[in-house]
Amino acid sequence: MALRTRLALLVAVAVAALVAVGGALFVHQLRAGLDASLDSTLRARADQLVQQSGPDGNGEFQDTGGDGLLSAREALAQVVDPAGRLTESSAGTRDRPLLTPAQLAEARTQPLTVTSVTPTGDGARLLAVPVAGTGTPPTVVVVGTATQLRDDAVHRVVAGLLGGGAVAVAMAGLGAWVLAGAVLRPVERMRRQSAEISAGDTGARLAVPATHDEVAALGTTMNALLERLQHALARQRDFVADAGHELRTPLTVLRAELELAEAPGRREGELRAAIGRAADETDRLIRLAEDLLVLARADGGGLVLRSTPVRLDEVVGDALRAAAARAAEGGVRLAVGGPSPVRVDGDPDRLRQVVDNLLDNALRYAPAGSTVRVRLAPAGTGIAVEVLDEGPGFPAGFLPHAFERFRRVDPARAEDGGGAGLGLAIVASLVQAHGGSVRAFNRPGGGACVRVELPASRGQRV
User: Fold this and answer.
1) Which of 163, 173, 240, 264 has the fewest CB atoms within 10 Å distance of its CB?
2) Are 377 and 384 in contact (CB under 8 A)?
3) What is the pLDDT of residues 341-366, one digit of tens each?
4) Domain 308-455, CATH 3.30.565.10 — does that match?
5) Does the global pTM surpass 0.85?
6) Class of domain 62-146 (CATH, top level)
7) What is the CATH number of domain 214-299?
8) Is the separation of the CB atoms in 143 and 76 below 8 Å?
9) At 151, is the secondary structure helix, strand, or coil?
10) Cα 105 to Cα 109: distance, rounded to the nearest angstrom
11) CA distances (Å), origin 114, targets 65, 150, 217, 392
């Protein structure tokens, strides 16, 4: 069922409930008011009859006319003596008691008002009052009046409420249906526009009504969602294209080396060299595939961290020892500074990968005779790891994109040890997975610095 129809039905049901409750209360008040008017008249008639009782209180009523106590005008009236006999009875009662024995017993102790049915089958309102001083038990005077006029008035009101209520419910439902259509029209328009947006339409946006209400807020939110999705799609396409480009080069080299090795007349030394180059390209492919896998898992939320208390200073020390041979080959010194021990909660293998990538990036551009320093320092409630080099630093235009994938300081150096441009991107993904942050900047005195901030372990004092 459409939302518009459900809203109309809901409003109709609510209005019907209000009309029913309000009508019931009104009819109840009307009936009570009419009964009060009848009771007032009955009390006056009963008082008049009681006043006609004998002055000595012996239960003998004065005769005010030739027809006895009750005149011919009395439609419903009776006098019941202490023995329960009808001493006076109007013509409309057909000499049948108006009260049941239980009602008569109650009426001898206090005035009693009841709604009953007369011997003729008509509805009646009865008032029974005991006559003081007429003995024990006392005489009871019963007066009554037909309730037909009251019932007719109530029936007319009920019929009017039913008819008017039905019209009100129908009008409310129709009005809600029309109003809901007007309110939901922009939503339906945005739904049609959303259905027409294709995967390749990267600039499509929904038309947002200038109403500044919830519908406009929904359109704005959906446009923001479209922008994020389209940005993610474009990023994914770029990622696939860049990955394909990066994989093509080592695969091409590997194929060429294998073809050369397969050529006839190759000497053993040439074959060994070709196989060695093919093995290097295979290692490069493995590293690239592993890096792409890390980034893909990070994007999909599938990067699993084995979180445990870690001595970060020991992780840095292991990474420096592993990089010592490469640093010595390039004539670069390695140094470390900061407090010890330093503990964080994280995955030791992933944290080692972060430090290894930062050292690899620093050593790639550090000139011979310079020093690459790793510095540990408190950072608010966490721990900072800084890797500093004395190289040329980051180009100003590269810094805003330093942690993007396949971004290289010098793309032309990719085939000469420049890497695939994934090292810093992996650092950013791993650090964010640990709840930390990372930034890159140039040092005032020259050289580059990459600063990683990680939350300290709960047991670490900083």
Assistant:
1) 264
2) yes
3) 888 888 888 898 889 889 988 998 89
4) yes
5) no
6) alpha beta
7) 1.10.287.130
8) yes
9) helix
10) 7
11) 29, 15, 64, 108
